[in-house]
C-alpha cells in the first residue's frame, strides 16, 4: 500500500516459536512440565521447541520494527498487506484491536489479504484453511503449519509492527510439540498409539497428539514406500518427485519421535487383544488405534485388463511413469472423475492425443450439475481433448504385451499407448471384515462426531469413513477430500486424549485444470437446483446448489473469495436461502 508520511503506522513482529501460552507457563517463566496419564501411569515431559527455531531476543539483528499506518487508516473488519522492508505482514483490525501475522497461507502461498475475515479468524481464498488472528494457529485445513504472529503497538496514533526477519521470510510456524520419553524402554512390538495409513488424516493425528503434549510412543504404518506426501499433486502436477511433495522432511519425524513403518500392510485387527497383525506375520499391540487407510482405486473389469501400460494413479511412481509414457503418444483416460480430468488436463501439452471415455453424458454432472459440467467440458475441448460420452470400455487390445487400442462398447476403436483409469474408488477396509468394527454395506467404517468407531479406543478417519455432517443435520456422509481428512485426524487425536471434541467443519475442496481452479464448499449431495451468477462461457461464475429452499453447497471459478465467504457463513451455523442468492 502507498506510504503516506503524514499517516504512519508501525508494526512489530515477534517469532512465535518462543511464545508460551499462559497456561503453559509456570511462575518462573519456564514451561512447566505437564503430566499425562498413559496406561494409568503418570508421565512427565517438557514441550519441545521447533528444532530449527531461533530466538529473536538472542539476536537483536533479527528483529525489525516498522511504522505501517495511522490508526484511522483501517476500519474494523479490514485487512491490509504491509511491507516491513525485509518481508510482509498481514495487518488486521477487528473490534477496535489491531493484529498482525504472516500474510501468506502456509499451504500453497495464497495471499490472505484476499481471504475472508470473520469472528477472529481469516479464511484462505484458495483452499479454505483458517487461521486465528490472535495466535496465528491453524483452525481448519488444508496444510499443517500455523502462521507467525507479530507484535503490534500503537504510539501517538501510529500503528507499529515488530517482527523477526526469519518469521517474515518463512511465513510459517510449526506448533510446539512434545517428544517421546525414553524410546529405548519400549518393547518393539507394542505402541501406545498405532495409526494405520500415512495420508493427511494419519499425519495430522500424530502431529496433534504431539502438539497436545502426548509423550508416549506413536507408530504410523503405510503400504506406501514413502513418508506422507501431498497426494492431490499426483494428478495435478504429475512430474513431482516424492521428496518434492513430502508433507514433512525425514528429520521432522525423527525430531518428534513419530515412527513410520513403510511398505507394511495390516492384514487383520484383533480388537480383543488390541493387536494389529501384519501381512508378513509381524504383530503389534496398541492402546489406541486410528484406521486411516483411505481408498483403493477401482480397476477395469473388461477383456485385456492385464495388458501393460494401464494405470491407476496411486503413487508418485505411477504418475511419473504415465508422464514418461504419454509424451508424444496417444492417451486414453477412462472416467471423467476429478482424477481423470486432472490427468487429462495435465497431459494435453505433452501427449500427441488425449481422449476421455465416460458413462455419463457430461463430466461432473452429479457433482457440479449439467451446466457447469458442460462449461468445463467445453474448456477441455478447446484444449484438444476428445470426449466419448455415454459409453464404456469393452476391451483393451495389445501388441507384444503392450496396450495398442481401446475398444468401446459403441464399437469405436481408439489408438492408445497408455491408459489411465479413474472410475472411482472403494474404501480400503477389507482387512477389517472379521474384526467386529462396524462397517456399512459399502465398506465404509461408521464413526460418530468424535471419529470413534463402535469399539472403545478405536478411531477412524479420512476417505474410508462415514461420519455425521453437522451441515446436513448430522446425516452420515462420506467426504473423500483432502481438507476433511486433515480435520478428521485432528478430531481423532483430541478424542484419544479425551477432549470430547466434535467435528463441525464445512467440507472444502478444489480441482485444478489448465491453470484454472474450481473451488467448492458444502455438501451438495441430492441438490435439486443450481442458481448460477456470472458467465459460464467466460468461466467466471459462482454456482449455488440448493435442496428445497436451502443452499447446501457452492462452486466457483475466477470468483474469489466467494466460496470462502459462503464457507464462513455455513461454518457459523447460518442458513442461506435460495432467495438470498437468486
3D structure, described in words:
It holds the Pfam family Reductase_C. Induces apoptosis through a caspase dependent pathway. Reduces mitochondrial membrane potential. With 582 residues, the protein is an alpha+beta fold. The chain folds into 4 domains: 61-168, Rieske Iron-sulfur Protein (3-layer Sandwich), CATH 2.102.10; 188-294 and 425-495, FAD/NAD(P)-binding domain, CATH 3.50.50.60; 308-422, FAD/NAD(P)-binding domain (3-Layer(bba) Sandwich); 514-578, FAD/NAD-linked reductase, C-terminal dimerisation domain (Enolase-like, domain 1, 2-Layer Sandwich), CATH 3.30.390.30. 16% of the residues lie in helices and 33% in strands. It has a 7-stranded antiparallel sheet. The chain has a 5-stranded parallel sheet with strand order 18-17-16-22-34. A hairpin with a 2-residue loop joins strand 7 (88-94) and strand 8. Helix 2 packs parallel to helix 9 (482-496). The longest helix has 15 residues, at 482-496. It is globular, with a radius of gyration of 25 Å. The two termini are 36 Å apart.
Using brief descriptors, characterize the structure shown.
4 domains; 582 residues; globular; 11 helices; FAD/NAD-bd_sf; FAD/NAD(P)-binding domain; 7-stranded antiparallel β-sheet; alpha+beta; Rieske Iron-sulfur Protein
Care to give the gist of this entry?
The protein is an alpha+beta fold. It has eleven helices and 41 strands.
Please give the largest β-sheet.
Answer: 7 strands, antiparallel
- Can you tell me the overall shape? globular
Task: Figure out the total of helices.
Answer: 11
Q: What is the CATH superfamily label of the largest domain?
A: FAD/NAD(P)-binding domain
Class from secondary-structure proportions: alpha+beta
In CATH, the architecture of the largest domain is 3-Layer(bba) Sandwich
Strand percent estimate: 25-35%
Q: What is the end-to-end distance? A: 36 Å
Total number of strands: 41
Mean pLDDT over all positions: 90
Which regions contain 5 or more consecutive residues with pLDDT less than 50?
1-57
CATH level 3 topology of the largest domain = FAD/NAD(P)-binding domain
How big is the Rg? 25 Å
The CATH class designation of the largest domain is Alpha Beta
Function: Induces apoptosis through a caspase dependent pathway. Reduces mitochondrial membrane potential.
Protein name: Apoptosis-inducing factor 3
InterPro entries: FAD-oxidoreductase/Apoptosis, FAD/NAD-bd_sf, FAD/NAD-binding_dom, FAD/NAD-linked_Rdtase_dimer_sf, Reductase_C, Rieske_2Fe-2S, Rieske_2Fe-2S_sf
Domain Rieske: 66-161
